[in-house]
Write a structure and sequence with these properties.
This protein has 303 residues and is an alpha/beta fold. The chain folds into 2 domains: 255 residues, Metallo-beta-lactamase, Chain A; 41 residues, no CATH class. It is built from 10 helices and 18 strands. The chain has a 7-stranded mixed beta sheet with strand order 6-5-4-3-2-1-18. Strands 7-8-9-14-15-16-17 form a 7-stranded mixed beta sheet. Strand 7 and strand 8 form a beta hairpin.
Amino acid sequence: MSFYVQFLGTGSALPTARQHPTSQYIFCQNRHFLMDCGEATQIQLRIRKVKIQKLDAIFISHLHGDHYFGLVGLLSSMHLLGRKKPIAIYGPELLQKIVRLQLEIAGARLAYDLIFQHIADDFEGVVYEDNVIKVSTFKLKHKIPTHGFVFREKEKERSLLVEKFKTSGLSIQQIPDLKRGKDVVDEKGERHSFKKYTRKPKPRFSYAFCSDTAYSKNTIKWIKGVDVLYHEATFTKKDKERSVQTKHSTATEAATVAKEAEVGRLYFGHLSARYDNANQHLLEARAIFPESFEAVEGDVVKL
Ligand SMILES: [Zn+2]
Ligand SMILES: [Zn+2]
């Protein structure tokens, strides 16, 4: 699996025996990302056997405790386990102050660097990019400034048809051009089409994370066409009033976003502790968008 998401916590503000606060592990072509870090995330990472020292970056959507109260604990454990590799933390500006203060009061000195990348309240755009993936952030609609994130793989290289290439008379220095879809010329000046020696690149995938938020039209353009969308669905229809007061979504609204953005599949989570199960959410979501599923802790979603 080269790109997958594992749900670590799919509950909302009040943890229950069934659900932890928000956190997800995202693996993409050897990049290891953590999306939000609610209480007990480090324990969930251990239970799910995710190697915490491999984490490259942590993204924090907003400063409600159920999305970051596990952060200082995780950072401390990384230190105790001998981490030396820096870690990047993307989130609101105040997060740096909070983390520094907590560490300072405890007299804790980490043996590795925390690289804070502030996301301004109004910022929308690319926050992380390397040669295989681009991560963009966008504003959600919640009680305090909150951001969603979308992870999009970049165009992949074509793969080489080795046996055909061997008999081509071309040099191995020309392989990168062929893989990038460029024709090449051999020593005799003869032109060779890249199509003859390579096959189509593997498809690229994309994943979007939207929590916490009321229904927001702005989200649609940012997540258009993603393969998998995680969207919060804190409430069902009968608690619609409560969802308006708290700026959260109902299952119907999450499914509407999925439908309007033409995504592949919807996984919904952040269910209020008032519900014992997700049956009603599922009914309401599927009435709008049939490819809707409950995000279950521990489940791995392959893209
Ligand atoms: Zn929340
Ligand atoms: Zn919140």
